[in-house]
């Protein structure tokens, strides 16, 4: 039996390696990992791979799932942050919250 697509659900396989953009449409990075709480099945946070604009190196940063928005019209994840701030967070290995 084939299910019809539902705009309220997303396939986790499709979110892996997904591009992440900000509200202005600038590319911020890509989904590296999606971490799930095994007790309740909820997504806890997403690990993004971010390319540092200063030196070109890739860094990973964990961002709480609550900070993301699934953009149905753009078919990607949105995060309300500038690339400059995200790079600073990645360099300092902080977690947004």
TrEMBL record:
It comes from the Bacteria. Residues 13-73 form the PRC-barrel domain. InterPro entries: PRC-brl_dom (IPR027275), PRC_barrel-like_sf (IPR011033). This is PRC-barrel domain-containing protein. It comes from Elongatibacter sediminis. The lineage of its organism: Bacteria, Pseudomonadati, Pseudomonadota, Gammaproteobacteria, Chromatiales.
């Amino acid at each position: 039996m084939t299910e019809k697509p539902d705009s309220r659900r997303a396939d986790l396989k499709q979110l892996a390696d997904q591009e992440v953009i900000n509200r202005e449409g600038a590319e911020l990075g890509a989904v590296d990992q999606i971490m799930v709480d095994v007790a309740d099945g909820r997504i806890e946070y997403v690990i993004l791979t971010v390319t540092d604009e200063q030196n070109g190196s890739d860094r990973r940063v964990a961002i709480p799932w609550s900070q993301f928005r699934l953009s149905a019209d753009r078919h990607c994840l949105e995060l309300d942050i500038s690339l400059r701030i995200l790079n600073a967070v990645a360099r300092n290995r902080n977690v947004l919250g």
